[in-house]
């Protein structure tokens, strides 16, 4: 089961569904329920989840439920607009903007809205929908909360590595760390020719905080099988990306994941990708390496890593599970 961590020091491990080819096996629910007496144990649990799974869910995270609901409402309202209106924020040469695309090679439907959230100096408001009118205000408020929660989680993960609490945040560039939201739109797909919503991948940045709508679809690959991430009301799914794996010299796992379509229901997800400032050199922390523990990864300027990875994702190279 994908671990669930709550800020109020209560750890719950939730049931997930293991999907093997044609049948579902339900794992025993509520296997463990343990009280964590202090933040030290919370650090331990988040660290363990990141080492063993590379994904966990956080509840009681402090982001107001109403704000999460509003984020979902304005996102859905945007996608409900006529195609011509959505094209007002269409993607141009860079990655930001609205795009819909059928990916022939992997039989996937890719429809999304991508835009930067932070730092303010790199925001292109031309890619933020003007309609619905509350879109901007809701996303700005959400960004403030996302940053707080991200820095808190990075603090726990830094301590888990035996580093200073601000080590990871600082290594991403502090206030200049880049936050980007991608609203993924997965329409119901009764036709079986659509294989996947999101192809099999790891997230390229440092860490992703994802809020899904209630229709299940996100799956993670662990112990040679695909596991459904169970929907938990108001939870935030935390996904460890490539850079945290590299910075931790392999201790934190960049979880392999994908998203499936639902046959009957529309599904939307709101991942916020947190990445290092583009010009930073990213590699294993020197404190974590030494003669007995050589660096497992080369240090690479983040924007070079990003471009190389995207280039290597040519469709025919994407694995199809
Ligand atoms: C992504 C992603 C999964 C989902 O956008 O990187 O993994 O549940 N999305 O939509
Ligand atoms: Ni992803």
Characteristic key phrases:
321 residues; alpha+beta; 10-stranded mixed sheet; 4-stranded antiparallel sheet; 7 helices; 18 strands; 28% strand; binds N-oxalylglycine; binds nickel (II) ion; Probable flavonol synthase 5; DIOX_N; iron; metal-binding; IPNS-like_FE2OG_OXY
Sequence-ordered SSE layout with sheet pairings:
Blueprint: E1 3-6, E2 10-13, E3 17-20, E4 23-26, E5 33-35, H1 39-52, E6 55-59, H2 65-80, H3 83-86, E7 97-103, E8 108-118, H4 135-160, H5 167-171, E9 178-186, E10 198-201, E11 207-212, E12 218-222, E13 225-228, E14 236-240, H6 242-247, E15 257-259, E16 267-275, E17 281-282, E18 300-301, H7 302-312
Parallel strand pairs: 1-6
Antiparallel strand pairs: 1-2, 2-5, 3-4, 6-14, 7-8, 8-9, 9-16, 10-15, 11-14, 11-16, 12-13, 12-15, 17-18
Helix pairs in contact: 1-4, 2-4
This protein binds N-oxalylglycine and nickel (II) ion.
In short:
This protein is α+β, with helices and mostly antiparallel strands and 321 residues long. It has helices at 39-52, 65-80, 83-86, 135-160, 167-171, 242-247, 302-312, and strands spanning 3-6, 10-13, 17-20, 23-26, 33-35, 55-59, 97-103, 108-118, 178-186, 198-201, 207-212, 218-222, 225-228, 236-240, 257-259, 267-275, 281-282, 300-301.
SS field, number of helical segments: 7
Spans where pLDDT lies below 50 across 5 or more residues? 7-37
Main sheet specs: 10 strands, mixed
Unique ligands: N-oxalylglycine, nickel (II) ion
Task: Give the oligomeric state of the chains in this entry, treating copies of one chain as homo and distinct chains as hetero.
Answer: single chain
Q: Assign the structural class, choosing from mainly alpha, mainly beta, alpha/beta, alpha+beta, or little secondary structure.
A: alpha+beta
Give the integer mean of the pLDDT values.
86
Shape: globular
Strand content: 25-35%
* String of helices and strands: EEEEEHEHHEEHHEEEEEEHEEEEH
